[in-house]
Amino acid sequence: MSEAQSVPDESTAASDLTAFQQNILSILAEEPMYGLAIKRELEAYYGSEVNHGRLYPNLDDLVDHGLVEKSELDKRTNQYELTDAGHDVVLDQIEWVLDRFVTDEERADEVRALLE
Fold first, then answer.
1. Which of 2, 34, 94, 112 could form a disulfide with 57 if both were Cys (CB 3.0 to 4.6 A apart)?
2. pLDDT, tens digit, 9 for 90 and up, residues 9-68
3. What fold does the segment set 16-115 form as a domain?
4. Where's the Transcription regulator PadR N-terminal domain (predicted)?
């Protein structure tokens, strides 16, 4: 079973998603990827194995929410790509985190250093 249920006819915000789903969107913000490449990126981040039974239902939920587009690379491989709505969710999450993290000029400098 997936970690979040699809809500039809409503836009999905970052706050509606699990951290795992937000991490998938962040990975896809870099470039479109096939499922196993996403799995490898998540495993590198978490430092442990990501089960197929967790990954693919969450990808399907993100597709259902309109945040990710799924296309066929070949008969056995699907590619996943961030949609414009998915892009907006990633930006909203970054903005939310930065609004809370950047509380003074020192922290603003830390963020600027990350961007350089």
1. 2
2. 467 788 889 999 999 999 999 999 999 999 999 999 999 999 999 999 999 999 999 999
3. Arc Repressor Mutant, subunit A (1.10.10)
4. 24-89
